[in-house]
Task: structure prediction
Amino acid sequence: MTLKNILIHPDPRLKKTTEPVTAFNDDLRRLADDMLETMYHAPGIGLAAPQVAVMKRMLVMDCVKEEDATPEPMVLLNPEVIWSSEEQNVYEEGCLSIPDQFAEVTRPTCVKVKWQDLDGKEQQETFDGLWATCVQHEIDHLDGKLFIDYLKPLKRQMITRKMVKLKREMARG
Result:
């Protein structure tokens, strides 16, 4: 398994809409393993393919956070929200592409998502709580949308400036 580099905002690739996954093969399985490894190592609970510079409709997630609990890694290919609850929930979200920045985002409490698994078979599940927030956040990435896009312009600009500064510092090494 290979740890992938996670793109840091602002990066034009994070604002692009991704292409559907059409080839269900060993390369895709390897990418899924690498993305899960990268997500766990970061550490995070979700990672979308564009965050590792792969412009495909693919995400991985695992919202099990308790140390003794069994991980529940999920790989969703071509995911799509097909139903969302009217009830809304507010979570303080963060993002591996926007390190150490958090903000409250309002999203539907429950969502039903359909996707394809690594064999190309269609799956469906209703997610709620943190899982619902996470899957919506990651699907947004596939559409070129970041959690900061839900914030007021001033707050978004402030976070973006911090990221520009962080990238400059990282480039200096």
Summary: The radius of gyration is 16 Å. The first strand starts at residue 46 and ends at 48. The longest helix spans residues 153-172.
